[in-house]
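Students often ask why we bother encoding 3D structure as a string. The short answer is that it lets us treat folding as translation between two languages. Here is a chain of 754 residues written in the first language.
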Amino acid sequence: MRNDRKRGAEGRTQGLRRRLSPATLVIHGILFLSVGFHAWTLAPEVWYGRYLFNDGVLHLSVAQRMVQTLETGEDPLDHWLPNYALGFPFVSHYQMFGHLLLLLLDRLLAGTLPLWFLFAIVRYLLLSLFPVMLFLGARCFGLPGITAAFIAAIGPLLSDHGHYGIAYESYIWRGSGLYTQLVAMNLFPVTLGAIARCVRQGKGRLSTAALLLGLLYLSHVIYGYMASLSVLFLLFPFEGGRGWWKTFRRRAFRLEMIFLLAIALIGWFIFPMLADSPYLNHSRWEPVYKWDGYGAGYVWRHLWGGSFFDHGRAPVLTLLAGLGFLLSLFRGENRFFAVNFLFWGLLLCGRPTWGSAIDLLPAGRDLHLHRVIGAFQFHGVFLAGIFLGTLSERGVAWFSRSRLGRRSGWGVAAALIPLLFLLPLLPLWRERVRFYAENERWGAWNDGRVREEAADLEALFRWLRVHPWGRIYPGLAARWGGSFKVGYLPLYAFLGVEGFDAVAFLYHAMSLNSDLMVHFDEWNPAHYDLMNVRYVVSEGGRPFPPFVREVARFGRFHLYRASASSGYFGVVRVGMTFRCDKRGLYDLAYPWMQSGHLARRNFPLVLLEGTDAAKHTSAVSPVLEPGDPLPPVPEASPPGRVIWERAGPPRWEAEVEMAEDAYILFKMTAHPKWQVEIDGTPVATVMLGPSFVGVPAPAGRHRVTARYTGRPERWLWLGVGILLWLWAARRERRGRSRTRPTPSRNGAAGGRGA
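And here it is in the second language, the structure alphabet:
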């Protein structure tokens, strides 16, 4: 017993010496320097995080809506987001872990802090601590500590200017506001590292790796997808050795177990999203490169010119990544990163280079190919760190063997040699200081301008909240709405965060109505009625049609009411059928929106390929397909009117008077999980043009209610997935405990595991 205690004390002493050795202190010093640098330079992100104009507007709105669901009794995992693109069940089709994190923090703090402040704090912490996640991921791969430290220092220094990669331009106030990608960016290296530790080294827990992969998918589907493809290269024993087929099979089994456990954890999200994919828009307004990739010429020019890693400065990181690539090609233990760097670089070339072969990838047709630049940059960062780490190790080894290094007292100097290899990064730190200082100046100027008009904005929002609800038109982003600003922010950015429905800017384009909403004609009364545009906000002096009348003025903000809208509900006839898939809907619906059919309330029934409604709904003649001309406009009186309505969420209600058998139109994007009742009786819904909810109703007065129900069974699937994961984790833990050696009295390994 005394010997055991002595050995334990000696082990603790040796561990403390290792942790306090000069080499370890240098490693931790580099990591602390990287974290401290970004924590200091990015602190203004918190102060100016209230007023956003990028995708942060959407993400804050989603988090606010999640908090609201707890108050209204809706499902936080599957609910309706009415603010954008004429409504859409956003979180049922979009990665939500980052928003759930904000919801959890808000509940833990009992709502004592404003949600915008929590959002700013979380973004700031994720940006500041990203070097730590890179360090942990590199160590999980088994890379030396000094290499991991260089990777941690390099990662946050990328500059790619608008390529939506992992450079901080994608996340900060003046950047793109890619919050969910920021969450995924932090999980990506530790997920890859944890899987590599299990698959390649046989260490770690499969259940932990599966949990991280599941969270990565819930944080950002494309980053989960990239991780899943990246780890496939772990199956190949690049490090050499005999028995490669046996090694391959052993690794394949471990990786398969990780994938199966991850699927069990996220099946509640992935499978419903795939089932509802016909209702997910493939927007034609997004640049072609987002869907198709850049092409080999573009990728080569920007890689050679340094734009993927070093935009606007000397290509230091580009050079380091290239040298690391050449080095790792000939070092088996690091070849995984070189192969992935090459693979994702080739995939980034996309359809212009590979054509329809891209469609052979899982979900290849609906994949935002330009986002794979994230995986390309990640592996480039690792390669750059491997190159500096290798030089550092060799420098230390050379110095230690030299005559000076063998002298007493020069061991500490050898440990400090890695600091010399930080010198190439000094220009990058200087460039980042200037970049973040400009970000702070812009944020401060914007904050001052917003505060000057804050009272007028608050008065405008108060007026809108106490009057009948309807969509607001502050100008389309591509027209005068983009220049109608407070500071740097267009007015529609404020409307979204304040929870108002607006026809203005596509913060997301997932709704089938997205591509058509941007054709709103502010001089066409039928368009006001179709999209329920009840209010217009603009600066003074802008002309509007006679049915748009000014009702209030708040500073320079003029508020108008449009009398052309019947509200969120309407009564229409169905005089034709559109038969198409989601990509062909625009070609049919756009001419109809510009025709006289809309003013006559003569709507099309839409039978969308791939949906159950298309299989079980009878078509109304004539049946049109993309390219067919519209039928003549009929002459007829209005089929009915809306008497009153009450807008949600979670519930929309109205009383309508039908002059004949016709259809009740609900002006929210069609989705199979809308539940509509007429006079208390549930009725089957159909899709009416352009992509709204419709139900048939007989002549007479009726009370209609609409509520988005989502998929309550998600909670059952989630519970089953968690139970399966817990069962697997327990089995794994018990299996490890049975095989772990136990010390005997004489200190030798004994027991069943010996």
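Translate back mentally: The radius of gyration is 30 Å. Keep this in mind for the problem set.
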